[in-house]
User: Fold this.
Amino acid sequence: MSIGTILEGLKIQDLSRGGNGVTREAMSSKGLTGEKPRVLFVPLTIPGDVVTVKLVAEEKRFATAELVEITSPSPDRVKAPCSVFGKCGGCTWQHVPYAIQWKTKRDGALHALSRTDVKLPAAPIEEFPAEDPWHYRNRIQLRARPVEGTPGDIDLGYFGRRSKALVDVARCEIAREELNDVLVETRAEAKKLLDEKLAKGEPSPEVKVEIDVLPDGTVRKAWNAKHGALGFRQVNDAQNEKLRAFVRASLSEGAHFFDLFGGAGNFSYDDADRYAFVECVDTGSPEGGFEGQPENYRFFKADVARWLDRRAKEFEKGVFKPKGPIEVVLDPPREGLGDFSHKIAGALDVLKATKIVAVGCDADSWARDLSRLAKYGWKLDRVAIVDLFPQTPHVESVAVLVR
Assistant:
C-alpha cells in the first residue's frame, strides 16, 4: 500500500491520547487486508465515524492518514463552533464531546503510568476536569501578513495545521472574550505596521503580537517581541487554581521549598508565607526577582540540574543549611527531566529531600520520570489529573512522591 492510497469505508474504533482517531481496518504489516492489523491514525475523527482517508505516512507498526470525507458521522460527533476548525493548527478536539475528551485524557495518563514499574497509590486518583471548556485562554499569539494578490488586505491569525500558512481568524473560541474584544483594533494596528514595512520595501513582511488578559481584566499587547515577553503564566486561570491548590495541599507548612523549573513562581510565590524558605529555579525565572518580594523568597535564573548539584555539594560541606525539611516541586518542560533525571534524583538524595511533587504536561515523559525517581527510593503517594487545555489532547498530570 503506497502513500497517497485512498481507503474508503473505514470505521474509527478508538480515540488516541495523542488526539487522533484510531482504526485497524484495512491495515496490516504488509498493507494487505486480512493480515495482522496495524494501527491507522486519522486526525479530526472520533469513534463511530465512517470515513474515506488518504494514506500520508507509514511506519512498521502504524500509519497515518488524512481525512478526505466523513461518509457517516459518529452519533457522538458534535459540531465545532469555530469557523476555521480543522484548518487552524490549534484545537483538534472541538468535534469531541467534553466528557469523551476528559475520559481520554485521564485514561491516557494512567495508561502511560501503567507501562512503567511504578505502583499506583492506594488513594483514588484525584480528577479536575474543566468546568468551562471554552473561552479559557488568557493569552494568545497571532501573526499578520499581507494577502498576496489583494492589496490592502491582511491575514491576522494562527498557523495552519502542520504548516506556516496563516489561517485568518475573526475570533477564537477558546480565548477569553476580553481578547476577542480587541481583535478588530489589533487587526487595524497590524495593518498599519505592515503598511510601514511595505513602504520600506521589505519582502514578505510579517508582524507578530502576543495579547494577554490579567486577572483584573487588563489587556496587554507585545508587538514583535520574543515569546513570553509579557511574562509566563498558565493559560487557564480557573484550572491553574485547582492545580495550585492540589500542590499547596501536598506540601508541608514550614518546609524549605525548592520550586524547580518554577518560572515566575506559579506554585510558590503567592504562598511564600507558608514555607520557611523558598528557592525558585529556572532558566526562565525573572532575573533578580520582583520588587518587594518576600524576605524568605529567592529566584535563581539558572540551569536546574547544575544549580541543584551545587546545592547538594554545599549541603555536604555544611555551607547550605536548610531552614526546614526540603520538599520539591518538579515541573519540567514537555520532554520531562530526560537525561538529567538521575543527576537531579541523586542531588535530592544528598539533600535528604522528603517529598517531591512531580508535574508533567506530557503523560509519557511524566511517567518515565516517575519510573526513574522510583529507582532512587521514591514511592507514589497521590496522583491528580488536571485539564488545563480543553479542546486539545494535552493534560497536566501530578504525582506526589514520598520516601
